[in-house]
Amino acid sequence: xxxxxxxxxxxxxxxxxxxxxxxxxxxxxxxxxxxxxxxxxxxxxxxxxxxxxxxxxxxxxxxxxxxxxxxxxxxxxxxxxxxxxxxxxxxxxxxxxxxxxxxxxxxxxxxxxxxxxxxxxxxxxxxxxxxxxxxxxxxxxxxxxxxxxx
Length: 150
Known about the structure:
Blueprint: E1 2-6, H1 12-23, H2 27-30, H3 41-47, E2 49-55, E3 58-67, E4 72-79, H4 88-102, E5 107-113, H5 117-125, E6 129-136, E7 139-147
Parallel strand pairs: 4-5
Antiparallel strand pairs: 1-2, 2-3, 3-4, 5-7, 6-7
């Protein structure tokens, strides 16, 4: 059984480890560590909302969000490599939609690396549209948004 809970200060190391494992596959693709691998998760847990998917007492996935006045920004989605391909990323996106709507927000936004083609496809299949792209550190940042009902 998988449950959702908010990350706490004592989860910072586990969050950091999950993110590093989840993003490790992209290091050879872009030739560097993706930005989420470099984040300060002590500060992120304090300053943002990080919701964890926990299965059998283990953190298996997470979503980090930041509420803005007119949209909810998805800062990070990470799924343990052992649990990728099981629909957890899509479930986390639905969780973000519910979170946004509960806060009276009707748009989700996120950024991703253009080289992360599987992620771009996932977001597009979940209703996100590419707003724009721009060069970043030798690659391309893809800005995406999804309008929610309301």
